[in-house]
């Protein structure tokens, strides 16, 4: 199968991850004057975005990805994406990361499944990169990194034929095979059926380069058309729309890969497992190769000079550590219910002072320093949990 | 014209690969073998004609031996999957290129050859003796410059046809061959840079399905285009022919399977194509479709992510 999937996998999965994190982090910014204690401020959010984007689009990491190699297991992908997420001050617990990964994969699977022709995979990737550029537009260095990566992607992929791109797409589809996690937003918009499968319509525009089905033409030995007949296509197709731009900047035309999450509806990212989810239990004969890749990718990620015991913002689903541990125990029961990706900042005193230190490093406008959480804060978190 | 029959469950879902369904009818034993690929595994179901017995078998590819830098690309088994009789590995290049190494496209060719396509564009010709398992690599045909997608041998049963193999590649190019100790290239039909994902050869006519959703009928030896059909709205994954009746089956990512009828008269060089029937497999990108018998009385379909073989029978 294709040896060129990794860069597109990370750009698109990473892009989906940033969309979701952006929505979550904005959703908590409920106060107007940023005086709320323990809430993610605009600068916190930007910092998280910049950190993740900076790591993901770093030259070292991208160069590793661009080397021709196989697409490995979900476990490897999840490990690297977790590490990317943790390149910021944010921390996700394993349960949240599992949910986040499912959501990312289902979104990308939907895009790959629905794209009209294999070349549109590039437009989907460019849609992700365009939005990522927007997230970090205030940080020129990050924008440069995204642009550099975009150029490398254009260079690496524009020469591929449709057949080679279809092979790439087939490799991705095999990677996503048998995943039918139901996503609230998809169910609501009827992109997905209740059984977890995506809807495929027999109407709409045909891909660029394809004719609307319905015509049979017969030719003679000299190549002249001697007869034409129509047949019922069984669908209602229309001519193809104009082609999107494959340049660094431009209108991509297709909407797949754009950010579909809105700030006001965090429930959109609820997921639930379909009843019969088979875990991949077969032993992986390429485990050694996979571990090598993992080592190279982790090694190429720029690590911050943070002391080992620095506490970032811990992400918990629950108020106290005790409840978190209890939740871990009943995780299997939880799985059949709606899984929630919840990124709440649990601030304790240590984290608060840490934030102050970080904020100081940036010479940004000083916000009101978060202080010891009050009881109201705890109630507020509980209330937010109830809403979900 | 056709109605849906009881589906056959398979152990794994079908992968999104061209022509991902094979059907072998064993009349003396009153059963039919169906095979579907899931990643690096082949799922076999043997169904008895009375519909009462279904036996499953799974064939896994041997682990690639990374240390010796060869790529295992082909394994041959007995028709019931019981014993592996032969395997073939290719040397991988010293420096890894961006081009993956894999096999795609296979055909049994008169008189006793099995041809296998490779991602480099090469075609391996294996000589399979009628007795014993002394299979040897007879020839490597290097005419295609792009990855092989599919190939087919003449299925009309007539030995008068000059050409008995057609091979297709990712650029849509078709090569027409005459088999023998040394295969002879009879004709090359250029593509338009659009992948030909599935091809069949019947009464000297090459029937090809393309990524654009078009089906084209060419006179194989001359390259004359007889018919062009704007058949599907998405990439075609499979075409099949029922040789006794001239029925043509096409299936694509658009979730539709279509049945056509071809009338080919080689003497007068005339070709006629008529559309007969549509079946929609809801929300499914079809990856394999085959007639189950030479008359086209029944056909079977597989789809990406689907763990069943859907069957249709003439009403």
TrEMBL record, chain A:
Q: Which InterPro entries match?
A: OSCP1
Q: Which GO terms describe its cellular component?
A: cytoplasm; plasma membrane
- Where in the sequence does UniProt note compositional bias of the Basic and acidic residues kind? 369-380
Q: Where is the signal peptide?
A: none
Where are the stretches annotated Disordered? 362-388
One family name in Pfam for this protein: Oscp1
Q: Which domain of life is it from?
A: Eukaryota
The cross-references to PANTHER family, in alphabetical order and at most eight, read: OXIDORED-NITRO DOMAIN-CONTAINING PROTEIN, PROTEIN OSCP1
- Annotated protein name in UniProt: Organic solute carrier partner 1a
TrEMBL record, chain B:
Which of UniProt's keywords are assigned here? Repeat, WD repeat
Q: Which Gene3D superfamilies would you find in this protein's record? A: YVTN repeat-like/Quinoprotein amine dehydrogenase
Under the heading InterPro entries, the entry gives: WD40/YVTN_repeat-like_dom_sf, WD40_repeat_dom_sf, WD40_rpt, WDR54_beta_prop, WDR55/POC1
Q: Name one GO biological process term.
A: cilium assembly
- SUPFAM superfamilies attached to this UniProt entry: WD40 repeat-like
Answer whether the UniProt record assigns the keyword Repeat to this protein: yes
User: What GO CC annotations are associated with the protein?
Assistant: centriole; ciliary basal body
Q: Does the keyword Hydrolase apply?
A: no
Query: Where do the WD repeat units fall?
Result: 229-270
Domain WD repeat-containing protein 54 beta-propeller: where? 73-312
Q: PANTHER family, per this entry?
A: POC1 CENTRIOLAR PROTEIN HOMOLOG (PTHR44019:SF8), WD REPEAT-CONTAINING PROTEIN 55 (PTHR44019)
The name this protein goes by in its record: WD repeat-containing protein 54 beta-propeller domain-containing protein
Q: Species name for this entry?
A: Astatotilapia calliptera (Eastern happy)
